[in-house]
Specification:
single chain, alpha+beta, NMB0513-like, four-stranded antiparallel sheet
Length: 127
């Protein structure tokens, strides 16, 4: 799957940003180890890669999920399930009504989670 260099590179680019930052980093040119000739990943593959990162970051203690200024409760698995089940089923559902932003859903009320990064000192960086 993804090697450690690719993982670290994606985190370097997306850390401390909203989930749209991570989503936008999930592109073939950011994953040299996958040796893809595509310009972009199919939506479902991109979604799976996104959740690979979110789950791993949660397990590593580098990320928390929140909504409306409150951290989500429950196990990591429960939080991932909530987020995954609400996630758009198609790429079109990610867009705003004018079709200008392909990451709009992360800022919409229907998105059940926002990224809260955990700094090295344990403080939280809300996005």
């Amino acid at each position: 799957m993804i090697n450690e260099n690719d993982y670290k590179n994606i985190i370097d680019w997306s850390e401390l940003r909203a989930f749209s930052g991570l989503w936008n980093c999930i592109a073939p040119d950011m994953f040299p180890s996958l040796k893809s000739n595509e310009k972009k990943f199919p939506f479902q593959e991109r979604k799976e890669l996104f959740f690979y990162f979110v789950k791993r970051l949660l397990k590593e203690g580098r990320l928390k999920l929140a909504k409306n200024g409150r951290l989500l409760e429950g196990s990591i698995e429960d939080q991932i399930k909530l987020f995954y089940e609400a996630f758009p089923k198609t790429e079109d559902e990610m867009f705003d009504k004018q079709k200008l932003m392909d990451d709009y859903w992360f800022f919409d009320d229907s998105c059940p989670a926002e990224a809260v990064w955990v700094n090295n000192d344990g403080s939280l960086e809300w996005t």
